[in-house]
Amino acid sequence: MDKIELLSPAGDLERLKVTLLYGADAVYIGGEKYSLRANADNFTLSQIREGCSFAHKLGKRVHLTLNIVFHNEDMDGVFEYISQVVDAGIDAFIVSDPFIISYIKTKFPKVEVHLSTQNSTSNYKAIQYFEREGVDRVVLARELSKKQIEEIVKKVDTDIEVFIHGAMCTCFSGRCALSNYVTNRDANRGGCAQVCRFVFENPGKKDFTMALKDMNMAEYIKDLIEIGVTSLKVEGRMRSLYYLATVIGTYREIIDSYYTNTLTEEKMNLFQQRLDRVANRETSTHYFMKNADYTDQYYTGRAEKSNQDYLGQVISYDGTLLKFYERNYFEVGDLIEVFTPNGEHISFVLERMYDSEKNPVNVARHPDAVYYLEYAFECDIPEYSMIKIVKRKEILGKI
Amino acid sequence: MKLLIECSKKDSSLFDMSDGIILPLKGFSVESVCYFTYEEIKNIVETSKVEVFVKMNKNFMNEEIDSLTDMLKKLNSLGIKGIFFYDLAILELKKELSLTIDLVWNQTHMVNNYKTCDYYYSKGVQYALLGKEITLEEIKEICLRSQVSSMVEVVSRPSVAFSRRSLIHNYYCDLGESGPSELVISEKVSNEKYHLIEDENGTTFFLDTVTNGTSVLSELYSIGVDYIIMREYGLENIFHDLVLDTMNYINDGCKDNKYILKYKKLGDSTNFFFKKTIYKVRKNG
């Protein structure tokens, strides 16, 4: 059995590297044009080349989103751009426009084309159409149940990719122009203003909202593997390094534990806790096991959490001192955890910390500043390991 | 240029007034307010003198493919002019079943460029209902450069989004009440109103503001648009006269300015005909 692919978003080159180090098998990125995240940092051609080179050395893959809904003017230059990114080493395009699909498969038959979820493909018959067009993979609509996904996998030869984690659209992807009408920002060309998270007035009643909880499919990874899905996709090209490290690292462990038959209930609880801690919204599995209903939406006050768990990003470790960039306030006496791209999680009470000049300090309070902490780790702590809070000193004192 | 109408009620007095009618097929279409059964459509086709198009613009699920297949076979021999489709399952089935019926590419917000129109034309799709979020200049370019027969929605309360979810029901569930199946909500900053209508297929968002494209008809006529579409929903009081006057206006070569002056009363929203959407709001960092 081929191992299922874990596919991560990457908003920039650093996130591409980090997420691959944390266990993604492939990343999807946006170029400077034609991607549905027009306002993300996105990748220049030279960054795409560097990202592909980095990924390929690890035996991993890079997919490029080319999934806007094209207007006439967007066709200018697109062929040249496709040629340039193929030359840069892209392994697959994620496309929604069938004309572009046909063009790529004709000109570059060795490059994979994946049908974007923007098409909201929801049945096997539509997939059979795209199979004949040479599409290598279809990213399914997020409105499907386990049974429906299972039937699709059985009835088509194309690889199937499903979303497993992250923010959700309220409407069928591609079938929503609320952003165009409310803000004049083109939803299908990368300008979506996320109007489905706005608050609307319903005179005489409580305000009307329709925002969805995020998706979290951790508990059903086993099912998706056994159904025969090819790729598990995490949403969030604009998410932080810490978020990606945590989410991708956790799903990596879930998948690996499944294949080594070590996915115990106790481990699953731990994995779920990690994912819950990094989430800024409540989560749901939406249509997977039932028809989605009001419990999948925010009607009871939508309080998005600002996550303060992320304390620092490791620069290096010399055997005694761990050098890092601070991200959020913490202090000596806090119970902290360092986790690594290799899947190590080390918790300890912080006893000694130093500023960039190696003067002893009790608190780290300057985000982005360099600090050191002293601890004798028994394993390698590579660059891009992360530091997070487990319990604050004042809470520990009360225990 | 021909006029197609979509009615908001099963009012046969309107059916023979235009060049053609669009009939949303119950259970197979969304983003409309009045749906027709197969038997009703069959009866209309048999009695009407105008072109009949059937709308089947739903995203289908696996379990609906068999009934979709059966329905397409039945419609193929009914003598209708064409089928509006969103889901590519319909295009696949047309090929598999060797259906002779014409299709209208109707992927609501996606029909935006001439090359993709021609792609579908090369796959046997005769018509394309152009997106409502493109400009008149873009429409013009598509008409000039594409082989597909073009359709443009010119007067309507436009449908702007569709969700599979029961958004109104869910909202009232949270309030602990049983609610209606329709709701009017206002966006707080723009004060723009939206009409939500929910049925067993999901929830449709209609913009409250009517798009009044009567002033662009002469230009659409001159650039060779094949069909214009007017939808009755929200315009019930005026629709009969509007259809009659529009037919006369077109038959007269779109020259009579009194028509444009008369229908200024529909409001001054020309939707995106003269307004370009933006999508880049910050430079790359």
Briefly summarize what is shown:
The complex is a heterodimer of chains A (399) and B (285). Chain A has 399 residues and is an alpha/beta fold. Chain A is built from eleven helices and 21 strands.
How would you sum up this structure, described in words?
- The complex is a heterodimer of chains A (399) and B (285).
- Chain A is of the alpha/beta class and 399 residues long.
- Chain A has two domains: 5-296, TIM Barrel (Alpha-Beta Barrel); 310-398, Beta Barrel (Elongation Factor Tu (Ef-tu), domain 3), CATH 2.40.30.10.
- Chain A is built from eleven helices and 21 strands.
- In chain A, the strands form three sheets. Chain A has an eight-stranded parallel barrel, surrounded by five helices.
- The longest helix of chain A has 19 residues, at 241-259.
- Chain A starts with a strand and ends with a helix.
- Chain B has helices at residues 12-15, 38-47, 65-76, 88-96, 114-122, 136-145, 167-175, 217-223, 239-251, 257-262; strands spanning 2-6, 20-24, 51-56, 82-85, 102-105, 127-129, 149-156, 159-163, 182-187, 193-199, 202-207, 211-212, 227-231.
- The radius of gyration of chain B is 19 Å and the shape is globular.
- In chain B, the strands form two sheets. Chain B has an eight-stranded parallel barrel with strand order 1-2-3-4-5-6-7-13, surrounded by five helices. Chain B has a four-stranded antiparallel β-sheet with strand order 8-11-10-9, covered by helices on one side.
- Chain B has two domains: 2-157 and 211-266, TIM Barrel (Alpha-Beta Barrel); 158-208, no CATH class.
- In chain B, helix 3 (65-76) packs across helix 4.
- In chain B, helix 2 links the parallel strand 2 (20-24) and strand 3 (51-56).
- With 285 residues, chain B is of the alpha/beta class.
- The relative contact order of chain B is 0.15.
- Chains A and B meet through helix 4, helix 5, helix 6, helix 7 and strand 8 of A and helix 4, helix 5, helix 6, strand 8 and helix 7 of B.
- Strand 8 (200-201) of chain A pairs antiparallel with strand 9 of chain B.
